[in-house]
From TrEMBL:
Transmembrane segments annotated in the record for this chain: 16-35
Protein name (record): AP2/ERF domain-containing protein
Species this chain originates from: Micromonospora nigra
Domain of life: Bacteria
Keyword field: Membrane, Transmembrane, Transmembrane helix
High-level lineage: Bacteria, Bacillati, Actinomycetota, Actinomycetes, Micromonosporales
Amino acid sequence: METVLYQFLIEVPQAAAIWSALLVVALGVLTALVARPEATTPAEPTAGADEAAQEAADLRRYAGEVAVAAAGAARTARRRRDAWRAAQEDLDRAWRAYDRAETAARRLAGTTALPTPRTPHTPAEYAARERWLHHAAMAAHWRGDLSASQLSDVFGRRAGWDPRRHPAEQEVVLARAVRDHLSAAYRSAAERERAAWRAAEVAVDAARALTTEAYAAAVRLRPAPVPAVRVPGAQRRPVAAARWRPAGVG
């Protein structure tokens, strides 16, 4: 149980930070693409310029689609995270219920060494025992401690249920049945929690991949740096190299 709690305390904040960052990045890329102005077309476009403009438009459209998909994937990852946290809470409740049932079953198991109280074996006594068992089983079922199938076995006198037993013995049998039911419920909750965690991992991987692709597409949309144009009139004339003259030559 401490391992489960440690995992919950450590991994939940990390996962929440990752999913939130993915959503922020995806929405940021989408906002940048929407706010990006269209490139102005030249007055007399050439065939090469038309092709370049078409490629830029296709890239812009692709980047926008990927950004929208990334934002949707990030929202899906957040929903899967919330579903996993709900499954984690269900698992914790199931564990606490099973732990209480196991403790009660062990405590009552220690009373089996004591002699069963002696009561008269009369029809009225057996009817009272049966009423006690039915009432206790119904109460356990309404608390969620006994399944409908187990309750049906109680009333059908199946699976070892014998209403003629003394209530002290029936209480031990009922405690074991409750423990078994809650143990199965805990295992089922653990499987649901693991499935929810796997689904959340798949969702965050998809969101991360789409966000990376959306960012890469947005980077490709950035205009290439324009090389600096040197103005001929602004160029400095090279300094003429001084000629070497022999000494004494005027």
